[in-house]
Amino acid sequence: MRRSGLDAVRKTSVSDIVTAADKAAEAYVLAQLRRCRPDDGVFGEEGADVPSRSGRTWVIDPVDGTYNFFAGSSYWCSAIALRGPAATTDADPDALLGAVFQPQEGKLWLGGTETPATLNGAPLSGPADAELGLLGAATSIQPRWLEQPLSAMPWHAAAIQAASIRILGSGSCDLARVAQGEIGVWFQHSCPQWDWLPGKAIVTAAGGTTATVEVNGLTWFAAGGATAVRQVVSALASAQLV
To answer: DSSP string of 110-171?
Structure first.
């Protein structure tokens, strides 16, 4: 679809866009899940919302990193998670299984509570348990949030403690690389379930740690080795203003 030409529609900002490919991918995944798992619920970024009769719900991000995808980058993926009973408004429910597929690089990460963390079938070593100051941190914050002290100050407090900062444009791609040890730690605020649960499942299956913290009315999410996650959370909380 991208090779044939796509238009993008703005959702909440210039960089938060959707294309027909996002919607087509979600429709395809929804159809397969309804065929294979008719009693399970489905909750997708582009509007899929099927109530669960089994207590299990699939959370879909058909294209994570749409801005990258639309620009011709390879740093985007399709991601899916399986969660147990939880409300769609819960910030951090349990993730039973996660999968992240980066098609242009031919990489498939899997992991969950009963599924070992793997990349294309090979076991993942997991994130190193090292000090934040020795690690590269992947993160994301939009320019409009940097204008607001309630979000900018916690982000700055954590970012300046890392050895380096990377903003790559796909949270699930980032989290998958945290699970394999390529990225040291990751943090971001206000993640919907489809941006968080697939990567969370894989990181924890690889032996990593995840956490959330409420700061100035925003929920921040972090993943990596235990020491770095603890230090990220502490830095974020140090900028509590209200």
So the answer is: EEETTEEEEETTEEP-------GGGSEEEE---HHHHT-HHHHHHHHHHHTTSSEEE--S-H
